[in-house]
Amino acid sequence: MTDMAIGGMRGGGMLRRAASGGVLPILTVLLVIVMVWYVAAVGMNAQWVRDQAARSGAVLETGEFVRQTLTLDRPVLPAPHQVAAGLWDGIAGQKITSKRSLVWHGWVTLSATLAGFGIGTLAGILLAVGIVHNRAMDQSLMPWAVASQTVPILAIAPMVIVVFASAGITGLLPKAIIAAWLSFFPVLVGMVKGLRTPEAMQMDLMRSWSASPAQRFWRLRLPSSMPYLFASLKVAIAAALVGTIVGELPAGASSGLGARLLSGSYYGQTVQIWSALFTAAALAGGLVLLIGLLERLTLRRMGLAR
Amino acid sequence: MNALPILAVWLGGWALNVWLARIDTRASRLLVALIFGATLLLVWEMIVTLYGVPTVILPAPSQIGASVAANGSILWTDFVQTILKGALSGWLIGGSAAILTAIAIDRSPFLQRGLLPIGNFVAALPIVGIAPILVMWFGFDWQSKAAVVVVMVFFPILVNMVAGLAATDPMQRDLMATWAAPYGASLWKLRLPAAMPFLFNGLKITTTLALIGAIVAEFFGSPTRGMGFRISTAVGQLDLPLVWAEILVAAIAGTLFYGVVALIEKKVTFWHPSQRNQRG
Amino acid sequence: MSQPVIRANAVGLTFQTADGPVHALKDVDLTINKGDFVSFIGPSGCGKTTFLRAIAALETPTSGQLTVNGMDPDAARRARAYGYVFQAPGLYPWRTIAGNISLPLEIMGFSRADRAERVARVLDLVDLAGFGGKFPWQLSGGMQQRASIARALAFDADILLMDEPFGALDEIVRDRLNQALLELWAKTGKTIGFVTHSIPEAVYLSTRIVVMSPRPGRITRVIDSPLPASRPLDIRDTPEFIALAHEVREGLREGHSYD
Fold this sequence. Notes:
Largest interface: A-B, 70 and 76 residues
Largest sheet of chain A: none
Largest sheet of chain C: 6 strands, mixed
Distance between the termini of chain A: 22 Å
Number of domains of chain C: 2
CATH superfamily of the largest domain in chain C: P-loop containing nucleotide triphosphate hydrolases
CATH topology of the largest domain in chain C: Rossmann fold
CATH topology of the largest domain in chain A: MetI-like fold
Helix content of chain A: over 70%
Radius of gyration of chain C: 18 Å
Structural class of chain C: alpha/beta
Number of strands of chain A: 0
Order of helices and strands of chain A: HHHHHHHHHHHH
Oligomer: heterotrimer
CATH superfamily of the largest domain in chain A: MetI-like
Structural class of chain A: mainly alpha
Number of helices of chain A: 12
Order of helices and strands of chain C: EEEHEHEHHHEHEHEEH
CATH class of the largest domain in chain A: Mainly Alpha
Strand content of chain A: under 5%
Strand order of the largest sheet of chain C: 5-6-7-3-8-9
Number of domains of chain A: 2
CATH class of the largest domain in chain C: Alpha Beta
Number of strands of chain C: 9
CATH architecture of the largest domain in chain A: Orthogonal Bundle
Number of helices of chain C: 8
Shape of chain A: elongated
């Protein structure tokens, strides 16, 4: 129970809190982070600039020194404005079809994520319905489903890609399978919990009206599982995105945000890594917010949310 | 023709479970889960052998078992490198840092209001992505893996701990006020114990994250040992049984790690309703 | 016996809310003497709990003077002048009953030996001897509330403030606890402020009954009880008791303005 509740809190409610007067503290903390980042950028890039200066025999004034640390081509830590410039260049500066466009790479990742998320969610819900109605399925599957959450499945994602590639399957499908696999378990576990929430009293009431199993399902179990479903959907979509990105890591993948990360790390293009990272972060935030929006709309229509 | 025995095993196992499921005792439940697992393994084995699935695509469970037996020392070296040095040390450092941060910002509602939404946001991000950066900064050995783990586990634990410290109800805080309790006493005697269920929730979630971080970070560069390194090189050599052996070790390590944390949780938060129900 | 302990002079307390100011207390004058058992009764919103919380310095009056033991309430709080019992037991689930009772003692810096002795004594006082090693969730609601009273008694404050302490318990348990509370009061001679919304409870327990009414929260009547100090449960069937209960009911009715 606590697992899900806290999982649901995560990422949700953010807009609401921001709107209810939390903007100033958030902005303050963000400002502090940016400042710390600048200081760190100067500090971490200092060695390189100093070496360069020593090599050319130049003596740098403090102002010039700081300017150089923040404008390096391949900095150890790029300054925020360099990342922002990299992001802008990747998003707006390229044709969308270009291999250097972050929109294109983002779309490659997003499409695999959404495909996998859809498959995984559907499978999770269907299996949860089966588990709730069939005791043998429940006892056979649930222990493994719960235990599987403690296993670092994500870590083997690249291997799955390679195996599929050796069988001649490449592109969107293998990544979607990983994403589906990762989103499947949270949805399954959350949905089973949700379908079981109706209290004994409510179930007895249904029985006293001699409601059919289908009626019990559609009118009691399914509606009361909705809060749980959305809580696990948020976890699932974040997991699906991470799965897709990690699935793009194996050498050979040339498209997607994961591939950008990898090629950036091969060639020391730190700005490229950070830009890809921020694009991924924006995608994740956007997806979770989207689910949160859907959740609020659905729950409000059901009269469960204020 | 090959499908028949496979189908027979599957249906047999299933029928046994349907029959056992009606008993519904603790032992029968365990048995059902075990039978399901065993049936799955058996069907897997039969499919691979009867249809002659190439090892490169899917090795049979028996081949994986043989690989585990044959590569014991390699698996152990990788386990120490990745799980103990990378994941565990990173998890401990990240967890302590998160707990201390939560306590440090506890007295400032302003900082909490600012940090909590950001922490919530960051906890949902694909943080593994920073692995290449940290490998560049901290080198190829386990230090960079631990650093990835620190960043990955920090925010989920922080968010849970802050929520836990805020979880005491107003009456409890009033009670402390009526005793004129100083800040330290109410933190130590009321709010820290009350935060434990939340903290452990965060600690449990992050056990898996720690393993993932440590293994994935090795894909971006590592010394010639470690589970991530072994998986990627073994895939390159098409030694799939070894890959699966590593996966098996990772799975067992993950379950054990989680189990140990859950066990400590049970000892520490024995009073919490969720733990009390499990007792009865 | 008539030494004033709590003194309120024109006390007012106004909450600022989104819908405008709410007058929780207005012009409250009251003196509580040492050894009094004073009940506060009235419908919800009449400010009885707010007044008790103001005495405990959990709320701050916005006008008038309020003193506890001759000090302002916050100084009295820091001097640990009173024990407070809430409607819910509020025991820590991770501490045993004995551990819960010794918690305020630990905070106040009592020695280990002193703590053990006091815990044993108050456990005995609330009839829970032998339950010190149990956890709260292993006891019934009534026993938990008795433990929380023991906790408020443990550090020997002269004043005991109780905010509907038996409100969540069933009638039978409540009767027993009322009786036990009276015995305890007779034994310890504490000054007790007791918030309730039950007329029989107020009449049965108190030496003085303060009737309050809402919007704004104020005192409408203060009734001195003519009942003897020793009160068996069946005193509730005597004409004196019934007449007193009637008077309280009258007081409550006149507080309701029909505007």
